[in-house]
Amino acid sequence: MAWMPSWQHNGDWFNACAAKQGKEIDTLHAPDTQEQLGGAQPLVGEDAAAFDWGQQSLRSWGIFGVLLTGVLGALYAVWIQPGVGAGAGYLQAVEALTDGSPEGTIIALLAIFGVAHSGLAGLRPAAEDVIGARAYRVVFALVSLCLAVVPIAYFINHRYDGLQLWNVQGVPGVHSAVWAVSFLSFFFLYPSTFNILEVAAVDKPKLHMWETGIMRITRHPQMVGQGLWCAAHCLWTGSSVVIAASVGLMAHHLFGCWHGDRRLRVRGVRVAVPGVLECSRSPPGS
């Protein structure tokens, strides 16, 4: 990791950054000696691909299973269930605003989700001080789930609606290329979903500083993965609805990149090179 400034490997400095942020940063058993890494520098941040069965709690995963089952069941009964769930009324209200235009409807649904999702993320520091990190994560997840499931279902049902701008589905190799790019796109998602117990608020949410894996390519893997997914689906379907959905998705992800970096700066963290976060004050000896 010669591309990283040497002071970033200083454990004391890393801990000082963590203390300044006022957050508990969970490091995943970084090797203590260079011999364990074959002479390489030990990790200061976390190994994004590390998974240690010895660190897993059967109780935590049991709680996660119960919560997941309960939340999904309640989501279906209250929001999704045909003829009963409130999601259908929400969709009808949005369609009324867009005069039934499928392109306008998918853009509106994604815009509402984006405002709620990013807005709640921006309110997190203040809200966590009031109700706690776990409780706020539950509120955040419930609102996001309800507002995400409607555009997902709408996209699936209307992806071939609107104008058909091109059709390359019969071109040799296109189908395989679309599958390959779509499959690749999901490899960019794992840093944001790896700590699923924290996502579900079973474990206390922490600030993670990944130093390996996809984060060596981009600090915003979900945005890159979404871009790959959108490109593949636009190529395959060629419909105006999919293009409109892709524009909405990428607009939200690009805004999310800026918004996430801004929130880190507010917390006293600045971005250096890909995958590395620095404390905003000067390092020792600089």
From TrEMBL:
Segments passing through the bilayer: 61-84, 104-123, 135-156, 176-197
Residues annotated as domain NnrU: 106-264
InterPro entries membership: NnrU_dom
Compartments where found: Membrane
Keywords (A to Z) from UniProt: Membrane, Transmembrane, Transmembrane helix
Major localisation: membrane
GO CC term (a single one): chloroplast
Gene3D superfamilies, per the entry: 1.20.120.1630
Record's keyword annotation contains Transmembrane: yes
GO biological process entries: carotene biosynthetic process
Membrane topology qualifier: Multi-pass membrane protein
Pfam name, any one: NnrU
Single Gene Ontology MF annotation: 9,15,9'-tri-cis-zeta-carotene isomerase activity
Protein name: NnrU domain-containing protein
Species this protein is from: Monoraphidium neglectum
